[in-house]
Structure formats: C-alpha cells, structure tokens
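Q: What structure does this chain adopt?
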Amino acid sequence: MGADPIAMRLVESLNRPGANITGVTSLNVQVTPKRLEILHEVVPAASVIAVLLNPTSPTADSQLRNLQAAADALGVRLHALRAGTERDFNGVFETLVQTGAGGLVVSSDTFFATQSEQLAALTIRHSVPAIHQSRDFAVAGGLMSYAGSFMESHRQAGIQTGRILKGDKPADLPVQQVTKVELFINLKAAQKLGITFPLSLLGRADEVFE
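A:
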C-alpha cells in the first residue's frame, strides 16, 4: 500500500505486524508534498496550485495538511478540488480552469492511479501542467509522475507471497518498506503545454518519454 500501515492501524509496527497480516508499503503518500515542490520547479511563476483529492480516501486530510505546509513554504496558494468518481472529473477541471491555477498535484489514491489515462487526457485538454503518482500517467501523455517504485513494490510483494506459500506465518514477516522513488517526465506533453523543463530536473528523472 502507498499509505503508512501503522497510521492506518493495520499493523502494530513494520518489524512486528502483530496479526495475521504482512505486506509491502511504499512512499506514495509521504512524497505527495514533494510532488508540489517538483511542480513548482517546472512552473515557478504559478501563484495558485490545485490539488486533486479523493474525499473517500482515509489519507486525504493528512495529505492536504502536508501539502498546505509545503505550499506555505513555497509561497503559493493551494486550491483543493475533490473527486470520488469518474463523473466528478469534468466538473473538477472546469473549476480548476476558473480558479486560474497554474498547475495540478494529484494526491496519492488508488482510484486516481486507476484513472491515469483519463486524467492525463484531461490535463492536456485543459492545458494544465500536472504531476501524478503513477508512471502510467506519464506514459499516457501526462506531464510527469513522482512516487514510490511500483515495480519494486510488486517485486517485494512477490517475495512475501512466496515465503507465505512456503509456510511462513504472515505475522512473523516484517512489512517491507520500499524507499525507492521514481520521477517520470513526458517531453511531448511539455511541448503541448509550452513548458521547458529545467535541465537539473531532467537529470534527476528515472525515465524521460520523448
């Protein structure tokens, strides 16, 4: 999962889950404020940045608080938008355009991860520079993504599953925390949006789609 399993009260600790459960956790939620910082590097003149939240997500409030703190430090105004279903997207982007936001941070949420392609298309259609959690967003034509490594998370999940199938008890297996984070950039999207990426940011990217 992308949220903190201790804060979500799923396990007592990462080393000792304390129940018939174990798993893998990545830094998706924790790095949401970093998404705002990266977007600010790309559109430094933007005085208003929107954030897309899922009101049904248990981490929505904490992500918003952390994003607000990051926005205050950067000197930008944050505008919260909420979508819990696909039907909400069109209204969200209409509101986003009306606010004059110079960019969009998509918060970490499973629903938004599964809607990467649609969100990518909407951001380009409405000319909104955006950063998402999923590599699929950048692959689908969105501007960029930044989050914990999905590939490494899946690899660790396979290892955990294999150990359980061989007889290990889940409660005895520490929750694996994937600390690797990845940045993906789509230069075609940047061209459509009239954006030039700083060379320093391109150098930090794990993959650049041209």
